[in-house]
Design brief:
- The chain is an alpha+beta fold.
- It is built from 1 helix and 6 strands; from the N terminus they run ββαββββ.
- The strands form 2 sheets. It has a 4-stranded antiparallel β-sheet, covered by helices on one side. Strands 1-2 form a two-stranded antiparallel ribbon.
- A hairpin with a 6-residue loop joins strand 5 and strand 6.
- The N and C termini lie far apart (108 Å).
């Protein structure tokens, strides 16, 4: 049996195939495959960059949240129990890198805080003080800071 459209030649054991028909729907050309692969690589590369930026942003947000918690804890400690005391201006710098009473895990070193207490209404309301805390962490171009303040009546 011969395939449809096949012809026999003089030798009975050999037959000739009909010429292949070239159809535009026959498949992809090499150029089309290369263009598709380049576009795929660009797409995957873009997704990877987006993933990296998202991870970095999430890490920065977690660090800011941790520093904010530290700042609020320092404010709470500075305000104290509310025992009435006259307001006095003062500034304190603290190195928090080795302070184990505060949870600073996950913050880049060095970690420091500046606590400023001032008396904005010393003439009219001497018992009111403004307490501000600045928490700094990291160094160089990756240094960040979180600032909090509160009015307190001692």
């Amino acid at each position: 049996l011969l395939p449809a459209g096949a012809r026999t030649n003089s030798n009975a054991n050999h037959y000739e195939q009909p010429p292949m028909k070239h159809s535009p729907d026959a498949g992809f050309t090499l150029v089309e495959m290369l263009v598709t692969m380049v576009l795929g690589v660009l797409f995957v590369g873009t997704l990877y960059q987006l993933y990296i930026v998202t991870i970095q942003s999430a890490t920065e947000a977690n660090r800011d949240a941790k520093a904010s918690i530290v700042g609020y804890e320092l404010l709470r400690r500075e305000v104290g129990d509310g025992t009435p005391t006259p307001c006095t201006n003062r500034t304190a710098n603290r190195n928090l890198t080795s302070d184990h009473s505060l949870d600073t895990d996950g913050l880049p070193q060095p970690i420091s805080a500046t606590i400023v207490v001032d008396c904005p209404y010393s003439t009219t309301a001497p018992q009111i003080s403004r307490v501000s805390v600045l928490v700094r962490y990291g160094q160089g171009s990756s240094q960040s800071e979180v600032r909090h303040a509160i009015l307190s009546s001692h």
